[in-house]
Design goal:
Blueprint: E1 4-9, H1 18-26, E2 37-45, E3 48-56, H2 65-69, E4 75-77, E5 83-85, H3 95-99, E6 106-108, E7 113-115, H4 121-125, H5 131-135, E8 141-145, H6 152-160, E9 175-178, H7 185-192, H8 194-197, H9 202-241
Parallel strand pairs: 1-9
Antiparallel strand pairs: 1-8, 2-3, 4-5, 6-7
Length: 242
């Protein structure tokens, strides 16, 4: 039986956020909502500084606390290991959000339901890879069958010594990470507090766009007002001359 998993090589990640954007697009998410977020850890002293970026999303845990804590059975796990949310059963209680140590769940404002990464199971049924894997420019992501010893993901997990993060929670996550910078205990604690460290780049960007639009309208208004005043003055001058 197929058991899906993913390898994320953070040493290849260039923080382009293409994975996040493609995920938002394929899931038709609101501009300030995302199933993938990023934790950055800086190590060293200038000029010898390294910055590691860890893309975080639903880990599709074998022993998923979100499934255990869902009172309606809306959160469930398929036979292939993918954890999904049945929106017809979800009541928006947010128990799953509280239970997830990876802060991977998102409340959607449009319908007040909770959703998350679903490994793009619709794409899998078409024979395609998840959107984040397809769009990863540096090819930092590998997706495949963890139960197939000859699969690319299994070979690369062993070759790159990839390991899950926050293993102390014993949820048996199915996403494995390659870290070049040594992840110390404090870093693990930082990752556990993802809410405080989340770098939500899209919402500020949207604000900048809106701000630019407002500034442009304001500038147009000022110019139009000045032109109108000038025309009125010229008109009054002509009338007085007559």
């Amino acid at each position: 039986m197929t058991r899906y998993g993913m390898l994320i090589d953070s040493t290849r990640c260039v923080s382009c956020f293409a994975c996040r954007l493609s995920c938002q697009t394929i899931n038709s998410l609101e501009i300030d909502k995302a199933f993938i977020h990023f934790v950055e850890k800086e190590e060293g002293v200038y000029p010898n500084v390294k910055v590691q970026t860890l893309p975080i999303q639903c880990q599709h845990c074998e022993d998923a606390p979100c499934v255990k804590n869902c009172p309606t059975g809306a959160s469930f796990q398929r036979k292939d290991g993918i954890v999904l949310v049945d929106e017809e059963k979800c009541i928006g209680c947010k128990y799953c959000i509280t239970a997830c140590p990876y802060d991977a769940r998102v409340e959607l404002k449009k319908d007040k339901l909770v959703q998350k990464c679903n490994f793009c199971y619709q794409e899998l049924e078409k024979g395609n890879q998840p959107a984040c894997v397809q769009t990863c420019i540096p090819e930092a992501r590998i997706f495949g069958d963890l139960d197939d010893p000859n699969s690319e993901i299994n070979i690369e997990i062993k070759k790159r010594n990839a390991k899950p993060i926050l293993s102390q929670y014993q949820t048996k996550p199915k996403i494995y990470y390659v870290n070049e910078i040594k992840v110390q205990e404090q870093t693990e604690k930082d990752i556990a507090g993802l809410t405080s460290l989340r770098s939500d780049l899209i919402k500020p960007a949207a604000g900048m766009v809106m701000g630019a639009a407002v500034a442009g309208l304001a500038a147009n208004y000022v110019v139009a007002t000045a032109v109108k005043n000038k025309e009125e003055k010229e008109k009054r001058g002509e009338e007085n001359h007559e």
